[in-house]
Amino acid sequence: MRQKLMTAAAVVADLRSGMTIGIGGWGSRRKPMSLVRAICRSDLADLTIVSYGGPDVGMLLAAGKVRKLVYGFVSLDSIPLEPHFRAARQTGAIEAAEYDEGMLQWGLYAAACRLPFLPTRAGLGSDVPRVNPDLRTVRSPYDDEEELLAVPALRLDAALVHASRADAHGNAQFLGPDPYFDDLFCMAAERAYVSCEQVVPTTELTADAPVQTLRIQRWMVAGVVEAPRGAHFTSCEPDYGRDEEFQREYVSAAGDAATWAAFRASYLDQDEDGYRAAVAARRAARAAP
Amino acid sequence: MSEPAAGPATRAEICAVACADTWRGDGEILASPFGVIPTIGARLARATFEPDLLLTDGEALLGQGTWALGAAPAVVEGWLPYRAIFDLIYNGKRHVMMIPSQIDAFGNVNISAIGEFRHPKAALIGVRGAPGNTVSHPVSYWVPRHSPRTFVAAVDMVSGIGYDRAAKAGSAASRFHDLRRVVSNLGVFDFASADRTMRLVSVHPGVHVAEVQAATGFDLAIAGEVSRTREPSAAELDLIRTVIDPGGRRHAELPG
């Protein structure tokens, strides 16, 4: 059976500038942040990002990687507004395709099912079609003749998701409360990459957890990256909650160019091991009397 | 922070009860509150007059019983991840209370962007589920700070749709469109006027009608004598103060 273990650097090497990349998780929850950090360090550019957005979107915007954003919201959950997203929107730096969050699901599901679109009521009457003039409606061919919004398939070149555990073949497991839409992201993508807290032998996946937690199957997955604390500073229940203190530091650093440069130098201008060490050192310094 | 066990109801407590009353008569559906005071209201409604409501823990679990803000429900009765919430929304068995950044006379709301969408003066969170919610199931709104900046003549980016937009968009949009109430720190409003524009239902104790109109950027429908928002009962006050919000978080959302 195929072995799919790879490094974050190898994932980035698979990606190309101009690609459409979907990112799993939700807001500031279970985001594949180690892969996002690797993209931020790369020379990739002009990406279209599809996301239930959180700091994944914010970090990519801050690094200048994004040409277009397809999203329903961008939020840090405990801090409602994402500072880099606000800045990018307010300067008009990016093309914004803002959808109802259910429309986003429908677009991913249409792509996953290889359909051109899926119909929905969501968005009708709102300004979503006004600001996305490429959206079309479709009339029901049945007696009701309702005119519904036709959400176009959101086909992805690549998807990035973060799981609790996976085996080396790409079977991935969520031990937290919500699988979000990660399997749809994977199925909507040409190639999906799963980072995870821990790579384990297949038999261990179901040794202490129900089989229903195996939401992602190997046929959906091109690569697996072992990334302990890879979702930091977003949450990855039950292994860890959101690092609220770090998130606050991220937000206050985003306030101006100098503080953001300092934040980047402290945490982001180095590989994942360096990031983890810097976060650990920060925590130790705060805990010291 | 300790709470007095007795004493007259605060504005926050009156608002919590007004929020609770928005779910009155809803039966066995999901009550989805955004914000502290609506969350208190939803739990209060279920603990008292609307026992069949379903409530989540704010994440993916449905819980039974009455639990405090920040705590977890003692009894889990179901699993409701986002995927299942979207299904439930389309099925219509939900009444959400959201917090608009702008709302107009017909109940169109904006949570997306202030100013022109392409170059907003202020980018907000995004339309989220507001477009789908408003065409799928009952929706109410909570406004902690009633002002002409929030109650506006026209919203900048229609996220949740109001009665005029729903009618214009045709039956697919209007079929399940059902705006119920708006609760603000000044009063309670609905859309039961002849032209489906916002009507002042009641003012909170100590608030004058003229004050509400002055804080509103459009003409409110006002039919005859405006009543006063009801006071919480002793049992409701006790539930709010000792069971649901013993830490007094309601007074951080709505001081005074």
What does the average pLDDT of chain B come to?
96
**First CA to last CA of chain B: what distance?**
15 Å
Strand content of chain B: 15-25%
CATH class of chain B: Alpha Beta
Q: What's the number of helices of chain B? A: 9
Give the overall silhouette of chain A. Answer: globular
Counted by DSSP, the helix tally of chain A is 11
Assigned CATH architecture of chain B: 3-Layer(aba) Sandwich
Helix-strand makeup class of chain A:
alpha/beta
Q: In what order do the strands lie side by side in the largest sheet of chain B? A: 1-5-10-11-12-13-14
What is the CATH-assigned architecture of the domain at 8-115 and 153-243 in chain A? 3-Layer(aba) Sandwich
Rg of chain A, Cα atoms, Å:
19 Å
- Taking pLDDT < 50 over at least 5 consecutive residues as the criterion, the unreliable ranges of chain B are none
The run of helices and strands of chain A is: HEHEHEHEHEHEEEEHEHEHHH
| Beta-strand segment tally of chain B | 14
Biggest interface, which chains? Answer: A-B, 41 and 46 residues
The number of distinct β-strands of chain A equals 11
Brief descriptors of the model:
heterodimer; A: 289 residues; alpha/beta; Glutaconate Coenzyme A-transferase; 3-stranded antiparallel β-sheet; 34% helix; globular; B: 256 residues; 9 helices
Furnish the topology, listing elements before pairings.
The complex is a heterodimer of chains A (289) and B (256).
Chain A: H1 8-14, E1 20-23, H2 33-41, E2 47-53, H3 55-62, E3 66-74, H4 83-90, E4 95-98, H5 101-112, E5 117-120, H6 128-131, E6 136-139, E7 147-152, E8 156-166, E9 172-173, H7 182-188, E10 189-199, H8 202-205, E11 223-226, H9 244-253, H10 257-268, H11 272-287
Parallel strand pairs in A: 1-2, 1-8, 2-3, 3-4, 8-10, 10-11
Antiparallel strand pairs in A: 5-7, 6-7, 8-9
Helix pairs in contact in A: 1-2, 2-3, 3-4, 5-7, 9-10
Chain B: H1 11-22, E1 30-33, H2 36-47, E2 55-56, E3 61-64, E4 75-79, H3 82-91, E5 94-98, E6 102-103, E7 109-110, E8 113-115, E9 120-123, H4 130-134, E10 138-143, H5 163-169, H6 171-174, E11 178-184, E12 187-190, E13 199-203, H7 209-214, E14 227-228, H8 234-244, H9 250-253
Parallel strand pairs in B: 1-5, 5-10, 10-11, 13-14
Antiparallel strand pairs in B: 2-3, 3-4, 6-7, 8-9, 11-12, 12-13
